[in-house]
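hiii, so i know i said id send this last week but things got crazy w the move. better late than never?? heres the sequnce for the chain we talked about at the cafe, plus the structure i predicted for it. fair warning i was half asleep when i ran it
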Amino acid sequence: MRSLIVSVAAGAMMLNPVAVGATQTRDEQRVLDLDQTWADAEVAHDATALRRILDPRFVATFGSAAPVDREGFIRAVLAVPRDPTLVQQLGERVARVDHDTALVTETATVGSGAETLRQVTVYRLTVVYVRRGDGWRAIAVHSAIVPATR
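okay and structure toks below
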């Protein structure tokens, strides 16, 4: 039964995809801008920026792995050797804001190797942001690797 529901939902998404790039509200654009700043901070290994963007209660999950808190996430980012050829391109971005909560779904294509991007991995991400004072902070992210298509 569950596989039938998943199949129907997947079919509906293919027939009626969310309008990527549709007009964004001001808050949605702010969240998308912050989201890009976060991606840039990861590539730059900027722990100060990551601490500013990630809420103290932040939690991250990757596939079926155990959750990681903010400091564990930052340690994981910094543990990867810095690669000057690394790029992270965000795509299929959709933001929704409801009061003090925002949701972003997107893909992140991460590659290295200069112009040829010899090694590429694509992730599907869902990020939750909360409004804190007059700004936004990421409080949760879930990511999973998108299987390569042949």
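btw The longest helix spans residues 26-44. thought thatd interest u
miss u guys!!
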